[in-house]
Amino acid sequence: MRDAYHEELDSIGEGLVDMARLVGSAIGRATTAILDGDLKLAEAVIEGDKKVDELQHDLEARAIALLARQQPVATDLRIVVTSLRMSADLERSGDLAQHVAKLARLRFPARAVPQDLYATILEMGQLAQRLMAKAAEVIVSKDVDLAMQLEQDDDEMDLLHRTLFQHLIDDRWQHGIETAVDVTLLGRYYERYADHAVAVAKRVVYLVTGEHADELQPDIQPVTGVEGA
């Protein structure tokens, strides 16, 4: 019985990894759709979010059933409760990728991103995908040091978001109000997506150590050029 119990705990972790990989792929494809004005790809991302929702609902149901049947305590209870919170972070990440794709669909056949901001949005999309790939790796490895790096890596997203905002408030902005609103929304979507990736990693820190990430002070240098999945 206990073997089956721990297999179920492991399967919940595997479900989280599947969710992280799906939403990582989704933000990458949504970025391509918004930059290229690719309606077919945008529609695929929007439709694909249903799979993320299904995984989240299934994981939630299994975790709650496990709580009811086994009444886990200590570390096992922390795993179940933390997994529920991570699944919510990942589901919201999928929603944000879907928001990017919906904006691409809304503006088709035009493109929502002006050419002079193409590189910045591309970089934000690629960084978001790398952050989620690292979050997935953290879920698998339970590597606390790697998890703690994500918040420092997220500083790059904050810098890109500020760069985007500087373009919007520049007197030389010539793309109109509608495009300004679109770009503002995109910047927010990517920033929040990155925040959720960081939140997932922080929850792994809590799962492993029983302490919140903000309470730990590791001597870690930020890592750049992390490869995405």
TrEMBL record:
Under the heading InterPro entries, the entry gives: PhoU, PhoU-like_sf, PhoU_dom
Cross-referenced Gene3D superfamilies:
Phosphate transport system protein phou homolog 2, domain 2 (1.20.58.220)
Q: Where in the cell is it found?
A: Cytoplasm
- Entry keyword annotation includes NADP: no
Which sequence ranges are marked TM in the entry? none
Keyword annotations from UniProtKB, A to Z: Cytoplasm, Phosphate transport, Transport
Q: Does the keyword Transport apply?
A: yes
- Report domain PhoU positions: 17-103, 121-204
Task: Tell me the Pfam families matching this sequence.
Answer: PhoU (PF01895)
Q: Which family does it belong to?
A: Belongs to the PhoU family.
* Role this protein plays: Plays a role in the regulation of phosphate uptake.
Q: How would you summarize the oligomeric state and partners of this protein?
A: Homodimer.
Q: What is this protein called?
A: Phosphate-specific transport system accessory protein PhoU
